[in-house]
Hints:
The chain contains 8 helices and 4 strands; from the N terminus they run H-H-H-H-H-E-E-H-H-E-E-H. It is α+β, with helices and mostly antiparallel strands. It has one domain: Nuclear Transport Factor 2, Chain: A. It has a 4-stranded antiparallel beta sheet.
Amino acid sequence: MARRLLMVLVLGLALVALMAAQAGCGGKPNPEETVKAFWDAVSRGDLEGAKSYFSSTVDPNTVIRFFPASEASAEQFIKFITARMKLVTTGHTISGNNATVDATLTMPDISMLRAQLMPKIMEMLSSKPGDTKPSIEDILKELMPMIAKVYNEAPLKDEKIQISLAWEEKSWKISADPFVDIKKQLQGI
């Protein structure tokens, strides 16, 4: 009887171990790790590294660059704005080859920038006959000290975002622009 009980116990443990091993093997990694790695690359200013986390269906240049400026100024601008930003993943769901990662992006309140900078931008963009309109880079160069002051003094707020990913080439890849709403706010400045 004891031998039979021992055999059932050993068999039961072996079955549990086998099921646990199978659950770990062949499973997809946590998509939150992709989002964290992407954010780490962005905040370091490693745009090429950040681009590697995008699905082949997404043009990473449209996601990474906030303004139609040179690559160097885009990198500089992204490093500047991410200095006061923090992304924390808060969970995920997986459905087949798609995943959604929930996250909280803590960032300065952009509405303050808009309120303080819009009059200056409108002044710069309004041209008189014969004047040439300044480029976005010229505007940014002139406004950067003011932007930096307001941005660095703005209170922080949390934005809830969802990041869509697709299983591609044996890894999770970001399949849609996770910052569309935030970029609209920035471009509304």
